[in-house]
Amino acid sequence: MTTLNQQQRTEAIETMSTRKVDVLVIGGGVTGAGIALDAASRGLTTAIVEGQDWASGTSSRSSRLVHGGLRYLYNLDFKLVAEALRERGRLLSTIAPHLVEAQPFLWPLKTPVIERAYSAVGVGMYDALARIGSKGKATVPIQRHLSKAGALKRFPEIKHDALIGAIEFYDARVDDARLVITLIRTAVRHGALAASRVRVEEVLRDSHGRATGVRARDLETGDTFTVEAEHIINATGVWTEQTQDMAGGTGGLKVLASKGIHIVIPRERLKATTGMFLRTEKSVLFIIPWQHYWVIGTTDTAWHEQLTHPVPTAEDIDYVLAHANEVLAEPLTRDDIIGTYAGLRPLLQPKVLDESKSTKVSREHTVTEVVPGMVAIAGGKLTTYRVMAEDAVDFALGKPVAKARPSLTADLPLLGADGFHVVQNRAEDLGQRYGFSADRMRHLLSRYGSEVTDLLATIDEDPSLGKPLQAAPQFLRAEVHRACTSEGAIHLEDILIARVRLNSEARDRGAAAVDEVAEIAAKALGWDDARTEREKSNYLARVAAELAAEEQSTDAAASEARMQAPDIVS
């Protein structure tokens, strides 16, 4: 079993500080994780460092969708949509069928004949491009036209006057943070050195101005060390400019931060069996069903505050509620909300900082040279992370080397994908053996895939881990244990935000589960009583600050409220 844990992290830092690597990736979001896997699977010695927890930025705060971008067809951007749909098909069928699940959506129609006709053409083109990208194989069902009665049957909470019918089409959903963590673990399986909570403080350059490595700080110990690298790839999203500024020079990318927020409501609040897709004046609104809740969002507004902890304001929350309530017969209220979160999209600006530098522009993303030896990539979206990774590594290596060592990730399953369907077929038997319901087994399989047998093995060793968390019975104690021993969690907040995701999926943001989760983590990570209390106090302070931020009316006030809780590692 490939693990991310304290021993692996320590050994990775020791190795990367004493051995020159071919590729050093800065940034542990989905793009950086994809790059690390792409490089490592080519046989390149690879290291990846992340200043916070894995996926702590945009990649744990998205709409949790894998989609082709139906709205881009309005702009006739067929190539972009085709590329995204091809990647969606790969994720569904080969790369991560356990993590990525096909999801139906309703597109409500408000006028007869004309709207249905042009919408049908658009969705039909979407389906056709998906088939072409999958070489004729259907990875999701094709569009289905519904009458008003048919739409109301699928989504009974729609206002009767909000539609005259609907088109049902398919995209897919994914737990974004789990995808990133699985990418990192798969990269480690293929030889990558990976360490979170490592902050790059300086990009080192030789006498000719070429980037040769970095000086970094282990935020857990305070120790500094250097990493020598033949190639450095900056994949830090909204932090792109800050990272490339360390290298000096004139090259790089310009990126602006745009905030998107989501609200979470209980699954039982809506009886619908499908999601919904709506266009708004500023963005699009998705109502997305998950096993135990609904995610509704998003917004698209400029963010000019600190980048580490974006938060929704009261105005943001009211905006999402208002647009959802335009089509819901029984309006949602703040009392229905059990969670909120905000993420920052790195909006790539049209021009690179230095037009004389080598650059590759590929539809939504761009990779360019910062200084010799260092490149930066930004733009794109979660769905196309693999293409971005391939482009970044190809660009860094140069055409001759890239041609000799091509990317292998198009058909490379992530951990948990191999044998997934075999284990899925055994789900009923496994559930009976451990006393788990079908709902529980669906939950476990969608998180761990074929690796669910590893999780069950820990329950065999310690039956107490087979019990549900008292305050959050949708999760097993074994899942907390695994977060610490195999998924790279170092702190309590790492568990509750990106692994056992109570921070965004529980009304109290997981506060009621803190004692039990901390007790399991303390045993797994070797915390003493003082460390355990510090972890709990820090997380509860974070919760209080996040809840206070939601009551503020402006980004500045919300950001200030959130920053009242200090980071556990600064």
UniProtKB/TrEMBL annotation:
The keyword Protein biosynthesis does not apply. Keywords: FAD, Flavoprotein, Oxidoreductase. GO terms for molecular function: glycerol-3-phosphate dehydrogenase (quinone) activity. Pfam families: DAO, DAO_C. Its cofactor is FAD. It catalyses: a quinone + sn-glycerol 3-phosphate = dihydroxyacetone phosphate + a quinol. PROSITE patterns: FAD_G3PDH_1, FAD_G3PDH_2. Gene3D superfamilies: Alpha-glycerophosphate oxidase, cap domain (1.10.8.870), D-Amino Acid Oxidase, subunit A, domain 2 (3.30.9.10), FAD/NAD(P)-binding domain (3.50.50.60). Residues 549-570 are annotated as: Disordered. Its EC number is 1.1.5.3. PANTHER family: GLYCEROL-3-PHOSPHATE DEHYDROGENASE, GLYCEROL-3-PHOSPHATE DEHYDROGENASE 2. Belongs to the FAD-dependent glycerol-3-phosphate dehydrogenase family. This is Glycerol-3-phosphate dehydrogenase. It comes from Arachnia propionica.
